[in-house]
Write a structure and sequence with these properties.
The chain has 221 residues and is an alpha+beta fold. The protein has three helices and 15 strands. The chain starts with 5 loop residues before the first strand and ends with a strand.
């Protein structure tokens, strides 16, 4: 997955979930943040950031904030749209007969449904940007939606689908993701129940390039 033109800047502040103030080439700019999560441990004053330059001249903000450098870790892609994009590219290399995004099941839309030899597979995708002591954690804020997705996958697995949840690790050097039970214990419980039902848990390790994100390894959790 590649971006268009990328430039670097320095994070200053985040007035709300959707925008940030960033120093770009000596000027203070208002930029769009492509992640509505908290990202408090990442978006700290002075942190180096990467911005994609918009090719839409009518936009109010000309930059999208897509990555930030965390001291002691390196670059972290925080683009919340990136995980589904890289997973779609990755699935296209996995020999499925059919790949369908946004599959309706129960009360949810599951990110991907795939078919191979008459078997249907369902895959939900979550991006991981939270790192603590060399381990990835999800979520970084309570997610009732995430709990509902896990419950739907558990039901689907019991109904005969083959289901999985894929954590896209949007940083390098991290090889596993654990449920952030301190922030949302219900998510951890739902993940344990999904595992017990046979839902696969995948960790998708990525290479974070200057203008790209690429899945380079798959591990089972």
């Amino acid at each position: 997955m590649k971006y268009g033109r990328i430039i670097e800047g320095r994070f200053l502040s985040r007035p709300n979930r959707f925008v940030a103030r960033v120093e770009v080439q000596g000027r203070e700019e208002t930029v769009h943040v492509k992640n509505t999560g908290r990202c408090r441990e990442l978006l700290v004053p002075g942190a180096p950031v990467r911005l994609e330059v918009s090719d839409n001249p009518s936009r109010k903000t000309k930059y999208d904030l897509v990555a930030v450098r965390k001291e002691g870790l390196g670059w972290v892609n925080i683009d919340s749209q990136a995980p589904n994009r890289v997973v779609k590219e990755w699935l296209e290399t996995q020999d499925f007969d059919v790949i369908r995004p946004e599959f309706s099941y129960g009360r949810s839309r599951i990110d991907f449904a795939m078919e191979k030899a008459g078997q249907t597979y369902l895959l939900e995708v979550k991006g991981c940007t939270l790192e603590v002591d060399g381990v990835g954690y999800f979520p970084d804020a309570p997610t009732e939606r995430g709990v509902k997705h896990l419950q739907e996958l558990t039901q689907a697995q019991r109904a005969g689908f083959r289901c999985g949840i894929a954590f896209v690790i949007q940083m390098e050097g991290i090889t596993e993701v654990r449920p952030n039970t301190a922030t949302h214990p219900e998510f951890g419980q739902a993940l344990a129940e999904a595992r017990a039902a046979g839902v696969k848990v995948l960790f998708l390790l990525c290479r974070v390039g200057e203008d790209s994100l690429e899945i380079v390894e798959q591990r089972e959790g």
